[in-house]
Amino acid sequence: MAQRFNRIRNGCPGIVLLVALCLPGYGRGQGFLNLDFERARVVSNDPDFGYLDWALAAPGWDHDQGGDAGIVYYGQEHLGLTGYHLLMDSTSPRYAPGTQLAGAYSMAFSSGHATFDGQGWTVAYLAQTGVVPADAQSIRLLATGSFAVFLDGAPIAMHSQGGNAYAGSIAGYAGAMAELRIANTSLQIHDPVVVDNIRFSPEAVPETSNRIGIPAGLALLLALRRRAAWRRPRIRERGCRGSRIPASFATMAR
Length: 254
Description:
Structural class: alpha+beta
Distance between the termini: 54 Å
Helix content: 10-25%
């Protein structure tokens, strides 16, 4: 049988492609990757601040484009005004080693100004797109800090499950291709969110749980608007450009 298939493959590649397209699961898109951050590889580009490449430090994950978001810090924390992402493990960050939430690695990320001189504001986030499991009823994760969760731009109400555990109902997305995005909703610099052990579960979320997520997301949007309105007159007097609500969050809040 294998020899016959090899003859077909060598002589008629179009038939092989047709067979492949008919195979179960072909072309349906991939599931989510590295939701527990355990696939991290620490290959430092700097002895002090780490400066890890995203493809090695957090494979599968996308991120915001503000400030220092192009690299992942490791060891020392970013000290500037812009946002940052930092890989946590038994030695990182140096001021609090071993404070990851679970396993060997967690990811921390902080919002910050859009430029190094303190102009504008960028909402830090982690994101990736994949197929939500067909039996998924909830999304669950460990987290600390002020955060909001989005699926395809829609905010997901997250319910406290005690300690650092949270869960949100996502039954309407079961089996669908969707972008998962976790955003830092703090309006302070150096106020990171730490996340770990993200998973899709067939278990529903109890309705009696304490809810966050949608209120946090809406509060951030309103606060950014008030902040922009408050700063604009004073900035105009100096002849500078006013702050704008980050387009990344405006898209998420729609």
